[in-house]
Design a protein that fits this description.
mainly alpha; about 70% helix
């Protein structure tokens, strides 16, 4: 089962990372993301967004107490067994999903001390640092993945995207062209073709 979950998490992370890189590929959109500007400032009128018109970011007053209880339970479980990598990852993933990546990082790093070849955790750290615009660390974690799995097309694509985000478009181009040539028909190869057209 662990084998299948690894690929599931990898696929989910690929979708999130690829979406992030595609959004950031356009300089205007990237500038808007960094400054917090939004094109459409009106809240969608649907069931999901009803009642959110006057709310701010999630905080103690508008987040369900069950979420805090779940978080405290996970922290307690980790404290009771600090070497249980599945509990550490569950907590780190929860914190990442709750937009608390800085709190998640130490838990992911603890996992890597126990299991330094955990590809899922390496991807998660690369994703977090990329979102924080810390491309040096994002590149470091991506290179660790590629050292373990040189044919990991998701990591190859991500490395090219990191270079593109750093403004090193020529390096990104070389990586993506190699990806397209060596792994034709793969989802990462198809994405690389699209990204090459946008460079």
């Amino acid at each position: 089962m662990k084998f299948k979950l690894r690929y599931l998490y990898g696929a989910l992370l690929l979708i999130v990372v690829l979406t992030f890189f595609l959004v950031n590929n356009n300089n205007d959109k990237q500038k808007a993301l960094l400054t917090g500007e939004i094109e459409n400032k009106e809240m969608p009128d649907d069931a999901v967004h009803k009642g959110l018109e006057n709310s701010n970011s999630p905080n103690k007053s508008n987040v369900s107490s069950s979420v805090f209880e779940r978080l405290e339970k996970m922290k307690s479980e980790v404290a009771q067994n600090p070497t249980d990598t599945s509990k550490l990852k569950e907590l780190a993933d929860f914190l990442t999903a709750a937009h608390k990546p800085d709190e998640a990082i130490p838990y992911y790093e603890k996992i890597l001390k126990i299991d330094p070849i955990n590809i899922d955790v390496l991807f998660n750290l690369s994703y977090i640092y990329n979102n924080k615009l810390d491309f040096v660390r994002a590149e470091t974690y991506t290179n660790r993945i590629l050292k373990l799995e040189p044919a990991n097309t998701q990591a190859i694509y991500n490395l090219g995207a990191i270079f593109a985000s750093k403004g090193q478009k020529e390096k990104a181009k070389v990586i993506w062209e190699k990806l397209v040539k060596n792994y034709p028909g793969s989802p990462a190869s198809d994405l690389a073709k699209t990204s090459l057209n946008k460079l």
